[in-house]
């Protein structure tokens, strides 16, 4: 089995690599160039800062420093400023190109990766996550490439240049900054950690309140029915905890902010004191010390900016981690060439075991053969694995052991396209395209004539839906088919199946009660489908069950309790009889001899 959906990457991937994985070749090149340019800008900015020292020295002493007079140093400063400007400009252009490439390629890379993932990977929770990932989260990660990476790389390069330059200029100044800077960095880091920890706590409390509010709203019918529309304890508790944590967070994060500010002040003040002492000692000219203090101030600002960029980059990691989860998810191995199927239309489970996680098995040593052209109904308690069995036929997941065969061939030995050509699926939870009602049906056979689409729609009872919609067949059904009811969506899906006429139909019948007319539509459709295809129906309605050539009753422990025809099971199958009686009572049915 593939447990791709539970794969977590325990080791954080280097940030730049996570970006690179999502970018095109040319984007990667642009990113490399941009990173180099960021480093070069930082270097020039560092040099420009350092140039103030010899400049101050020549001004103070009237002698030349390192072979250049005041004018020489002024000119060098000017040249450095121009160079820094030019590099900044080019770097911004390249950086934006890299950022644009990231956003574009990330979408494409994720799209390609999604197309290869096992169908079972996609559940509702995931669909929501992916949509927020590719919409605004990738945008903000892209901004990281354009703004945060430059600040980080060039800031770091400036700091290194300044430290190295100070050592070269005068070892005492080098020593001061080398001792003070790590202390400041440590304090800044501590302040960020505190802030992050407290933010996470407040976030959790706020999230708890908002989910309790959703729960409160969603459970209104149940709460009111129970006469408890006031004083919903979980919500009140969560709100109180949220208020407490907000209050606490205000105190602690003010402290953390103060610590951050103090750490920078500390760097500057201690720098001023120590270098001032050096000046009083006459070890260094006063003007040089003034220049040094200026450099310290600038150094402190760069340090603070750097620490802010690190925070921003940390936030940008979240979408990158999610993207990585998609990129590294296990795909189902697939073969390229299709071989002819020995027995088209046949389905076989051969000692299949499967579970969504290693601890819990849904199917255990499960065997069942459905000959071509027959109709089999699978019944069993909720959660007994009926839908799971159907999804294994469509290879949503690979089995842990045993074999699923379609048309006599192991489904792992055929290309997805060949397997999909064999099947149509009508599932409980149907997702429609945000397109017209008509196109949603016609998509299953692009070759079909209008008359054929209409006939399928009519049989499945979609015509009655079209009649009441404002724009008839051309009404757009909304994302996922939101503007239709669950039963209506399933009818559209049945019409698709009728049109496609695939050799095998997997039908997971809706559990919701249908009105008499719709029930008749579904039954008529099933009758039509069994004329052209092998039908496997996960049945809830007694009429559907009774129609099947063969009935399989699951035991709820991963295997089959009983199987046979309706007549045989009705007289001798204990579980089947039990199932039947309970359903019949619920539906107000009485079965007379058939
Ligand atoms: N995507 C999934 N991930 C993890 N567990 C799952 C997943 N889908 C189903 N399960 C679990 O597998 C078991 C079998 O579920 P399945 O949907 O096959 O039952 P079912 O017989 O179709 O039930 P129902 O009649 O309610 O539709 C259940 O315990 C369910 O919670
Ligand atoms: Mg089910």
Which CATH-level-2 architecture of the largest domain? Answer: 3-Layer(aba) Sandwich
Helix percentage range: 55-70%
N- to C-terminal separation? 44 Å
Report the sheet with the most strands, covering strand number, pairing sense and barrel closure: 6 strands, mixed
Mean pLDDT across all amino acids: 86
Enter the CATH topology name of the largest domain: Rossmann fold
Tell the overall outline.
Answer: elongated
Strand order of the largest sheet: 6-7-8-3-9-10
Our estimate of the beta-strand percent is 5-15%
Radius of gyration, taken over Cα atoms and rounded to an integer in Å: 35 Å
- Which residue ranges are poorly predicted, with pLDDT under 50 across at least 5 consecutive positions? 1-10
> What is the total tally of β strands?
10
**Treating each run of at least 4 consecutive H or I residues as one helix, how many helices?**
19
Bound molecules: adenosine-5'-triphosphate, magnesium ion
CATH superfamily of the largest domain: P-loop containing nucleotide triphosphate hydrolases
- The tally of structural domains comes to 3
Order of helices and strands: HHHHHHHHHEEEHEEHEHHHHEHEHEEHH
CATH top level label of the largest domain:
Alpha Beta
- Kindly name the structural category: alpha/beta
């Amino acid at each position: 089995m593939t447990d791709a959906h539970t794969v977590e990457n325990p080791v954080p991937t280097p940030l730049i690599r996570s970006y690179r994985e999502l970018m095109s070749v040319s984007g990667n090149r642009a990113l490399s160039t941009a990173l180099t340019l960021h480093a070069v800008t930082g270097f020039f900015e560092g040099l420009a800062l350092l140039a103030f020292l010899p400049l101050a020295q020549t001004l103070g002493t009237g002698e030349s420093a390192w072979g250049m007079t005041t004018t020489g140093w002024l000119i060098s400063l000017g040249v450095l400023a121009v160079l820094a400007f030019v590099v900044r400009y080019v770097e911004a252009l390249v950086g934006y190109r890299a950022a644009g490439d990231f956003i574009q390629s990330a979408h494409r890379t994720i799209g390609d990766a999604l197309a290869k993932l096992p169908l079972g990977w996609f559940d509702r929770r995931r669909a929501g996550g992916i949509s927020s990932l590719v919409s605004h989260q990738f945008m903000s990660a892209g901004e990281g490439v354009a703004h945060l990476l430059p600040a980080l790389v060039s800031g770091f390069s400036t700091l290194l240049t300044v430290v190295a330059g100070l050592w070269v200029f005068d070892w005492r100044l080098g020593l001061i900054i080398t001792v003070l800077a790590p202390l400041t960095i440590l304090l800044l880091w501590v302040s960020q950690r505190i802030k992050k920890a407290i933010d996470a706590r407040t976030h959790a409390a706020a999230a708890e309140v908002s989910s309790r509010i959703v729960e409160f709203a969603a459970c209104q019918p149940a709460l009111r029915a129970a006469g408890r529309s006031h004083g919903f304890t979980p919500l009140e508790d969560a709100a109180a905890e949220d208020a407490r944590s907000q209050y606490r967070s205000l105190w602690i994060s003010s402290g953390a902010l103060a610590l951050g500010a103090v750490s920078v002040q500390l760097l500057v003040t201690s720098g001023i004191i120590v270098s001032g002492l050096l000046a009083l000692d006459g070890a260094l000219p006063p003007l040089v010390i003034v220049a040094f203090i200026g450099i310290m101030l600038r150094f402190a600002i760069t340090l603070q900016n750097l620490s802010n960029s690190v925070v921003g980059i940390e936030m940008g990691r979240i979408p990158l981690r999610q993207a990585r989860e998609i990129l590294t998810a296990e795909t189902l191995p697939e073969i390229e060439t299709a071989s002819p199927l020995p027995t088209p239309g046949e389905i076989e489970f051969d000692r299949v075991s499967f579970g969504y996680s290693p601890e819990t098995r849904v199917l255990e040593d499960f065997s069942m053969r459905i000959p071509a052209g027959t109709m089999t109904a699978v019944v069993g308690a909720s959660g007994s694995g009926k839908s799971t069995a159907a999804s294994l036929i469509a290879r949503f997941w690979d089995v842990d052991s045993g074999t699923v065969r379609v048309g006599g061939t192991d489904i792992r030995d055929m290309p997805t396209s060949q397997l999909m050509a064999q099947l149509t699926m009508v599932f409980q939870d149907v997702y429609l395209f945000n397109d017209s009602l008509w196109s949603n049906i016609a998509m299953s056979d692009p070759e079909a004539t209008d008359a054929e689409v209409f006939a399928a729609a009519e049989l499945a009872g979609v015509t009655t839906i079209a009649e009441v919609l404002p724009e008839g067949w051309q009404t757009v059904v909304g994302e996922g088919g939101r503007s239709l009811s669950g039963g209506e969506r399933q009818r559209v899906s049945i019409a698709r199946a009728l049109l496609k006429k695939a050799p095998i139909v997997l039908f997971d019948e809706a559990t919701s009660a249908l009105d008499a007319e719709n029930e008749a539509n579904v039954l008529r459709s099933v009758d039509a489908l069994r004329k052209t295809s092998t039908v496997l129906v996960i049945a809830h309605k007694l009429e559907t069950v009774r129609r099947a050539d063969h009935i399989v009753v699951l035991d709820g422990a991963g295997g089959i309790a009983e199987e046979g025809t309706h007549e045989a099971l009705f007289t001798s199958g204990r579980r089947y009889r039990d199932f039947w009686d309970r359903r019949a009572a619920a539906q107000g049915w009485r079965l007379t001899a058939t």
